[in-house]
Amino acid sequence: MTQTASTPRPRPTESAKSVLLTMLGEFVLPNGGEVWTGTLVDGLAALGYSDRNARQAIARLRDDGVIAPEKHGRKTRWRLTDDGDRLLRDGAERIYQFGRRTEPWDGRWLVVVCSIPESQREKRRRFQTQLAFAGFGFLSSTIAVSPHLSAEQTANEVLERLRLVDMAIVLRAETGMVTPDGELLGRSWDLDALGSSYEQFVATFGAVEPVGPETSFCEMIRLVHAWRHFPFSDPELPAELLPPGWAGNVARHLFDDARVTWSTEATVHYKRLEARHDR
User: Fold this and answer.
1) For residue 273, which of 225, 211, 224, 213 has the smallest C-alpha distance?
2) Mind listing the domains of the chain with CATH numbers?
3) Hey, is 102 helix, strand or coil?
4) Less Cβ around it within 10 Å: N or C end of the chain?
C-alpha cells in the first residue's frame, strides 16, 4: 500500500517524548542543533499527536536536560544541550551502525557467573538489565553469556560499577557434547520472538512508498523509531549462529534502503517547517 499525504494517520502508540527524541536525532541534530517550538509541535501533529502532548514532550526533554530554551521575542527556539547532543550522537551511532558486525566467530563464549544473594534483588536486577543492554543472554538470573569475547570489558565495567567483582567469575569457554551451541543459544535468547519482530518490521515498512515531503518526513520518523528498538533487543549474533533466512538481514537492508530513499524529501519538509516559523 502506498502511503500518501491524505492517508489516514494511525493512532500513536509510542509516547510523544520518545518520538520527539527520534525527531531531534534524525532532523535537528544534523541541521544545526536548534529548532523552533512550532516546528516540533507541527512535526508531532503530522504524526497524530495533539498540541498538548507535543508541548508536554518538549517540557519533559527540557527537564531531562536534553534541550534548553532561548527566547526570540514571543517565540522560543530550542537548542540541544551538551548532554543532549552527546546522547543523540551516541544513539545515532548505535542505531546506524547496528547490524554491520562482520567479524568471524571462533566458537568461544564469554560467560559471566555472579552469585548475587537473594537479599540483593535490586542489584541482581541491575546486573541483568545492564548486561542485557550490552547484548548478553541469560542461562539463569545470575549466569550471562555472549558470543562476543570483546564484550568482556563491558562486563567487567558492570561488575565494578555494581561492586560485584568479588562475587563474579568471567570465563572464555567452549560448549561440549552435552550442551551444543544451538541449545545454549536457544536457552539464552528468544530468537523466535526476535525474528517475528523483524518480520513485522519488514511487513510494515516494505509496503510503504511515501509520496511528497510531508509523508516522507512522517514515515522516516516512524521507520527510525521502529528500528531503534532492535539494537537493544538483538545481541548481533555471529552469522554462524543465526538460522537460515534470518529476517534481521532482510530488515537491515530495508532500513538502509528506505532511509536513503526517503531522506531528501523528508529533510525538505523539515526545512519548510523551520522556514515557516522563522518568519
Assistant:
1) 213
2) 9-104+212-279 (1.10.10.10), 109-173 (3.30.70)
3) coil
4) C
